[in-house]
């Protein structure tokens, strides 16, 4: 029989298996299959983790990566590092300017080196000329930095401004108590750092004052754009989350905080402010430099715990309790390093009871039209919003500051806000701080964890920013916008801490709120008094004949006020004409003859005047020597009873204790206010020292007719004026006053 045929499909000649040869022959097939598998895996990943799940998927992948290794530091074993390598080993200074230099000294830097009382420290890098020098400055070359023995030098890049970290340590080692962190293209305005920042926070030289503070009423607001407060709502700082750029409304109200713990002070820069590349490239009409101005009269403003602001290394003052916050991260891009440092430092600052404050323009920076790519800011735009939220929510149970700092740096590395290299850099930085003699500040209880107090009406402070010329998508605004708002700001700045006490003679149902609305825009608060108390309208009771006896209770209630202005509702106050007045002096109508006058006791109705004169003499006889001598000297030419109708007068804070003492001398005597007020004023000060602001007020005893012609917007005050319970009367007055304050037309 014939043999059975074997199918050719399986008829394969025998070969020895040579894998290398087989791979070589089929490599293109293998690559195609691998590419196909990768594509399928990518599609599978996208299908199973749609847009909302990308972050979770990414987190899942990241969680598989090894966690950072926590550096354990024996703080007690840190040895002191003494400067033995530089010519400045014995030099000491409390105030330092630290700047990075990559080129020969700029004109700005040459001027900065001459600022009295401050030592300029220039920190070099690999791009700095070898022969760099500047009279009055200390220069740290790369070689000198390496010899200082600091641990941080092992982490620092050679060609970056981040090497300023060495400069901070050098300054602290040589006695620094204040460090001004700045760049080399900024001119300090008026060459006076102390003029703009709060250099002294304690001691006799410190400014004992309260600061405006952003409101904490909205717990969901964690970051603000400070440029709005200083008149530029269309400009935003580098480091502001891009999702917050569109929030351009000004504050509805502010609160206040006592100064003394603004350990980090961020200055605003005119010319080229600190802006990101998105702003820089989207707001330029041509290849020309920015020259943006901010409001130099806007008040400095503080940040409450829970609210942050971008902080840079271009114009910032650090006080010694915040020196630990100078560390510039090394694992992120250079354009992100100081911003991440700022947010990190703000969060730790709350742990010692400190806060950040932002100050009006302190330097003018010049735009050299040196563009930097968006990619340099990638670490900012990708994660800064998430970082702020994380920092506000972060809590630590550590009991010492440096342990909290190291723990936060570890968690930030764990959350990929910066790399593990920065975790170990932080450990080196903290050890170096101890090595140069820095003492850890003590921890304070965190206000964020306490119940927030309700912000009452009396705690609210108003400030309406000016809107200055700016740029919008390459289109420049011409002229100052809202000049009237600028005026309102000036008036508020002058009188925002003055309390108005107003007595209403007529019904208060329809006028109390109107008066508060009219004057409350300008003054700290308006206290309403009337013979008919109204709790619903917050109108307190008082007798106009003895009004001075009711004033003293408000002095303690508003013990931080600059002064107290009394006003009757039959007198109109043109506040825009009071700007020249001295808030430390007495104001009264002693030069207005129909308001301040002497009555001879021989008049037909002399009985009342005689009794008043007798009581005045009785009070004067019981006065302490300094009051009595001053009164007798000032009233020696008055032959009779001196009276003042006292429709308007002002008492500064410094003389409030004197007024209280004088009121107490009257006791139960029924001295009419017309006799009491001039007696008080002549006892408190010489009339030659009174401020003359009210001397030119328009005054008549009674208004006969044509009342609209009688009013003058050029006078500081107008008397008499009658606003009855009719809303029409009040609207008529507001329209007349709009000649001096055009914004009043918005009320009608």
From TrEMBL:
This is Glycosyltransferase STELLO1. Keywords: Membrane, Transmembrane, Transmembrane helix. It comes from Genlisea aurea. The chain crosses the membrane at residues 30-49. It comes from the Eukaryota. Pfam families: STELLO (PF03385).
